[in-house]
Amino acid sequence: MTAMRAYRTLIAAFVAFLALVGGGALMQQAATAHEAEAFDRAQLRRVERIISERYVEEVDTDQLYRMAIDGMLDRLGDPHSTFIDVEDATDLEITTTGNYGGLGIRVQKVGDWVTVMSVIASTPAEREGLLTGDRIIAVDRESVAGWDESLVIERLRGPIGDPVTVTVARVGVATSIHLTITRAEVHVPPVLAYMYDGIGIARLAQFSRESTEELREAIGKLVLAGARGLVLDLRGNPGGLLEEGVAVSDLFLPRGVTIVTTASRIEEQNYAFVATEGDAFKDLPIVVLVNGSSASASEIVAGALQDHDRALILGTPSFGKGSMQTVYLLPGGHHLKLTTANWYTPSGRSIENEHELAKVTVVGSDGGTLGPVREITVAPEREVFHTTAGRPVYGGGGIVPDVIVADSLSVVEREFGAALNRKALSIRQLAFRFAVTWNGEHPGLDPEFEVTSDMRVAFLALLRSEGVELDDDLFDSVQNLVDRFLAVQLANIAFGELEALRRSQREERQVLEAVDRLIEAASVEDLLDAVADDKDNTATQPDASATG
């Protein structure tokens, strides 16, 4: 058994199931400490009893206990330590295993109705004919009008083998459609991969139990297809299992080097994870993409590859979650997720971010609302560490990329976004609604389609029907942005998630920058040397303001 697998119960989103039980060996304590503890417990019970009996409104005792638990966790000041209800256990299962009992669809509320945004391949939903764009109007003959997606999801998920009847409205079909679908175990694929200009691109969405093997297989296929470089896209990946973060790092590192270390008050959670497999793709130069939503296990991978000079990190600073959580199983199917350790990159960095504004900021954009996202901070003063090759890297505030590239919006694009935001509209949802209607009315879309003027005119009509105040000049000036969103949603509905990802990423600055750098580099050393040369050239440029 490898050292990594021997410690496979820990996670960095991070999940390990331990029974929370009372009892155990009793330890002799000073009488004053014992009395103080007894006093505190008595006080807590007395306060609970007084509130239960005398508060102006009746309060259920179970509710009071839950309020006490929430209060304790809140006073820790740690957003990662939480109490998990039975109802939320399925989300925990998806995070750790990538599997759940259900139909195999992704849904979102679009307008007044929860709508199928995509159908996962080889699932009951696909076999029974649910389509992207279907509006869910009833579940088991009960109307879901006004429900949000969480309520609909709760009703659609359930025990494997149990049937559920879903009623949908579909563009181009005059009557509602009733589908009785038997729930099955659904696997959410964590990896999407494709080739672009001779470079392999693999997006890893989460670190669930099979992520490493699925990523290994996907990269292997890219290499067989002739990929001479790899873009590993961890943007938006919130983390997952620590063991998978370690295992993914192990795919690219030589045997024996440190991947991550953990430090805890709990003796068995002090551990150094070491690469055991050997670099499976040692001749493949790699660019890792991160952003402000890359967290936890994503940062373990980015930090390990950066510290060992195995990849160029590109994008914007990551979230900064340098702690590890253990999940304790409680009676009744509840769970307590508690921060029990901190973790450090191979160079000794903690990347924990206090999420306070710093002096240097790069502002990206939310692709759905076209409004500014959380400011991406680069602290002006950080503790300096060094990689294996001696390059400076920085602690605190997430993983700072070697090359910072933001997918920022132009002034006119922000103006366009503001016009939508005034009506609380999302361009992604509007483009999706347009694409559902367009595909319904124009079936047989060519895989190599381009957005046409007729499509733009129809989309502008949709915007104005929603009350968006927009003149023709502003709309014309954001044509590239509009085309990108329309193309992505049209591709999603007609051809699925992978083709939608291709359409989206071929216009993204971060992806294009990564691909360009990999095309020019024969090795990871070439990638890193080019960054050093860029910095040297910048440092030696004359100050134009000082010339006469």
Structure description:
It contains 17 helices and 24 strands. By secondary structure, the chain is an alpha+beta fold. Among the domains are: 99-187, PDZ domain (Pdz3 Domain, Roll), CATH 2.30.42.10; 191-325 and 341-404, 2-enoyl-CoA Hydratase, Chain A, domain 1 (Alpha-Beta Complex); 411-505. A hairpin with a 6-residue loop joins strand 14 and strand 15 (271-274).
Query: Roughly how much helix do the residues carry, as a percent range?
Result: 25-40%
- Counted by DSSP, the helix tally is 17
CATH architecture of the domain at 191-325 and 341-404: Alpha-Beta Complex
* Form type: globular
CATH topology of the domain at 191-325 and 341-404: 2-enoyl-CoA Hydratase, Chain A, domain 1
Which value, in Å, is the CA radius of gyration?
A: 26 Å
Percentage of β-strand residues: 15-25%
- Just give the CATH class of the domain at 191-325 and 341-404: Alpha Beta
Amino-to-carboxy terminus distance:
70 Å
Short description:
With 548 residues, this protein is of the alpha+beta class. Among the domains are: 99-187, PDZ domain (Pdz3 Domain, Roll); 191-325 and 341-404, 2-enoyl-CoA Hydratase, Chain A, domain 1 (Alpha-Beta Complex), CATH 3.90.226; 411-505.
Secondary structure elements and pairings:
Layout (H helix, E strand, L loop, with lengths): L2 H4 L10 E3 L11 H24 L6 H15 L6 E3 L4 H9 L1 E4 L2 E6 L2 E7 L4 H5 L6 E5 L2 E2 L5 H8 L6 E7 L7 E6 L1 E4 L3 E6 L2 E6 L6 H14 L5 E4 L8 H9 L7 E7 L6 E4 L11 E5 L6 H11 L4 E4 L7 E7 L5 E10 L15 E3 L13 E3 L5 E3 L5 E3 L8 E2 L6 H11 L5 H15 L11 H13 L6 H6 L1 H17 L1 H9 L3 H12 L3 H17 L8
Parallel strand pairs: 1-18, 12-13, 13-16, 16-17, 17-24
Antiparallel strand pairs: 2-19, 3-10, 4-5, 6-7, 6-8, 8-9, 11-12, 14-15, 14-19, 18-19, 20-21, 22-23
